[in-house]
Every structure is written in structure tokens, then in C-alpha cells.
Write a structure and sequence with these properties.
By secondary structure, the protein is α/β, with parallel strands linked by helices. The chain has eight helices and seven strands. It folds into two domains: 31 residues; 181 residues, Rossmann fold (3-Layer(aba) Sandwich), CATH 3.40.50.150. It has a seven-stranded mixed β-sheet with strand order 3-2-1-4-5-7-6, sandwiched between helices. Helix 3 packs across helix 4. The protein is elongated, with a radius of gyration of 21 Å. The protein binds S-adenosylmethionine. The site of S-adenosylmethionine (SAM) has 23 residues, from strand 1, helix 4, strand 2 and helix 6.
Length: 230
């Protein structure tokens, strides 16, 4: 064989091997790896608090999503995309809608990663959830199987996020309110008081039937339940 054909052949083999290596590297990349690769958070994510910081909470969210009855997931509070990554990676059959006010510049980077890694499975709606969630349920006829509320943590926003999400539920929908703490006052931080009050009032009024709650660390916990749909 002529030398030039041998060189072309070797070049093709090299490109195939390099392509496979590149694909494997990128298809296994986590969101945190991606932030490091693009030099946004080279020494670890430094944005607002997020679910993957707490291993037990991440496990809980993975387990609850990895169920054949969970097909449509919604969250309020996309932030850097860490909870969306947990949901989408835990169950390849789910689709997801996230609502976020978009105040952090890294939201669009997280969205880019989620779209690249889970193509066609995620929608992000930017804006204040107190407006965007009602706009959504008035125009889209959809019910979610799992809803994670982790957006604005002031009492008013937590309360109306919980109330508004009822319009997107069926009787088996599991709603999770992030950042509640139970019977451990020394663990309550300023971002907990709104979600705790909103969740307790929803239980007392009969809107929510609680299924469980967990405290994980100072300032970190969650509660979950079903809406009473009559
Ligand atoms: C604690 S972070 C969410 C963390 C994320 N769920 C995770 O675990 O990876 C809260 C997010 O909600 C957003 N947010 C705050 N107020 C909001 C509002 N009124 N409507 C929608 N998003 C809001 C914040 O900008 C932030 O991105």
C-alpha cells in the first residue's frame, strides 16, 4: 500500500479513537464537572444553596423519582441545575419543567448542561413563580407526579407557591417543600421560617396531608405529602 494511504488510514483510526474518548468523557460528565471544565466554578459550585450539598436529601430525591409512576416532574427553583440533574438522571422516563426567577447568571449555564445531557426532556420557565406558575396552569393542561418547591424562601412566596402548585396536581402527586426543620429550633435559619410556616399552615388547613419530614443539618430539611384533592 502506498505511504499516503497508510497515513490517511492511521489518521482515520486516530480520529475514531479520539472521538470515542471525547464522547465517553463528555457523556459521563456531571454538572459540577461541567462548571469546572468551563472554568465557572473551578473549585466547586459557589452559588446559592442546593440539594446535592446534602447526601441524604439527594438519595431521597433519587429514590422517590426512580419509580415507574413518576413521569412528569416540576420544580420551583432551578438555580444551577443540581436538583434537575438529580431528577433527570434518576429516571430516564421522566420529563421536567423548572421555574426560576433567573437572578443568577449561572442559570443559563446549568440549563445548557441539562439540555446537552438530557436532550428534549427539560423546560425552564424564567420569571417570578408567583406569576409564571399561575400563567402556566391557566394555559397548559398538565398534572405533575412530583413537585419540588425550592424557590423564594420568604413566607409569602413559599405559601403561594404551595397554593398555586395545587392546580398542577392529581391526588397522588407528591409535593416536597424544601427547607423545613422539625422540632429542632437551634437548626432553624432565616431561610427556613417561611417554608416552615407555609407548610404547617397548609397541613392545619387540610390542604396538605403530610407523608413525612426529615431534618438533615442546620438549616437543611424537607417535608413531603399529598394535596387533599376533593
Ligand atoms: C435554593 S435555590 C434552588 C436550588 C435547587 N432547587 C437545587 O437544589 O439545585 C432557589 C432558586 O430559586 C430562585 N428563586 C427565588 N425567588 C424566586 C421566585 N419568586 N420565583 C422563581 N424562582 C425564584 C433563586 O433565584 C434560586 O435560583
Amino acid at each position: 500500500m502506498e505511504d499516503k494511504y497508510i497515513i490517511i488510514l492511521l489518521l482515520i483510526v486516530f480520529l475514531i479513537i479520539y472521538g470515542c474518548w471525547w464522547y465517553k468523557k463528555n457523556s459521563n460528565q456531571s454538572l459540577d464537572d461541567y462548571y469546572k471544565t468551563i472554568n465557572k466554578f473551578p473549585s466547586g459550585f459557589k452559588g446559592e444553596g442546593y440539594s446535592q450539598q446534602i447526601i441524604e436529601q439527594s438519595k431521597f430525591l433519587k429514590n422517590i423519582t426512580n419509580n415507574k409512576d413518576i413521569k412528569n416532574v416540576m420544580e420551583i427553583g432551578f438555580n444551577g441545575g443540581h436538583s434537575a440533574e438529580i431528577f433527570l438522571s434518576s429516571n430516564k422516563n421522566i420529563n421536567m419543567v423548572s421555574f426560576d426567577i433567573g437572578e443568577h447568571d449561572y442559570v443559563k449555564l446549568g440549563k445548557h448542561f441539562i439540555d446537552k445531557t438530557y436532550p428534549g426532556r427539560h423546560q425552564l420557565i424564567i420569571g417570578d413563580s408567583l406569576k409564571t406558575v399561575p400563567e402556566y396552569y391557566k394555559t397548559v393542561n398538565k398534572k405533575f407526579d412530583l413537585i419540588f418547591i425550592d424557590g423564594g424562601h420568604d413566607y409569602h412566596t413559599a405559601k403561594y407557591d404551595l397554593i398555586n402548585c395545587k392546580n398542577l396536581c392529581h391526588d397522588k402527586t407528591i409535593v416536597i417543600m424544601d427547607d423545613t426543620i422539625y422540632n429542632k429550633d437551634e437548626w432553624i435559619m432565616d431561610w427556613n421560617t417561611g417554608p416552615i410556616q407555609a407548610w404547617n399552615e397548609a397541613k392545619e388547613s387540610g390542604m396538605i396531608r403530610e407523608l413525612g419530614h426529615e431534618n438533615y443539618a442546620p438549616g437543611r430539611g424537607q417535608s413531603w405529602g399529598n394535596y387533599n384533592i376533593i
